[in-house]
Amino acid sequence: xxxxxxxxxxxxxxxxxxxxxxxxxxxxxxxxxxxEVAAGAWSAPEADLxxxxxxxxxxxxxxxxxxxxxPGGRVLTSxxxxxxxxxxxxxxxxxxxxADGLDWDDTVEQASDLSAARVVVLGVTPxxxxxxxxxQLARIELAHAEAARTGTRAPVTxxxxxxxxxxxxx
Length: 170
Hints:
- By secondary structure, the chain is α+β, with helices and mostly antiparallel strands.
- It is about 45% helix and about 15% strand.
- The chain has eight helices and seven strands, in the order ααααβββββααβααβ.
- Strands 1-4-5-6 form a four-stranded mixed sheet. A three-stranded antiparallel sheet has the order 3-2-7, with no helix packed on it.
- Residues about 165-170 have low confidence and may be disordered.
């Protein structure tokens, strides 16, 4: 569903219409995922992560898949979630979406340019998010608090990606 929107094969309002046609039962998560897609999430686990972070009263508003620019204007890996106040990236490490050999290697290695730029990087897995979201949120909050305590933020600029409009069928 998310890939279809990203590739502009379907509009979000068309998917909302489909969800409406299915009825209200079990549509809550689909509606939330559609809203997160409109805000920039690239996968269902990312949408779950964004929704989880937004429940926290300790974390700032997250950025979804921003463009990061490091020292000298070098474009860095775009993290799934960015907490700009402390320069912290949260990456969903998913074998499901990157299971074939080189893709998985790239996924595991993608944080190296962020680490080299002194970005705080935290990885989460979709299974851990599903199994114990409260524990994952606590990990993220703790890492954020530690990063804030140091008072040192990576010299990285984050720019929001344009969001997709949540159009309504007339």
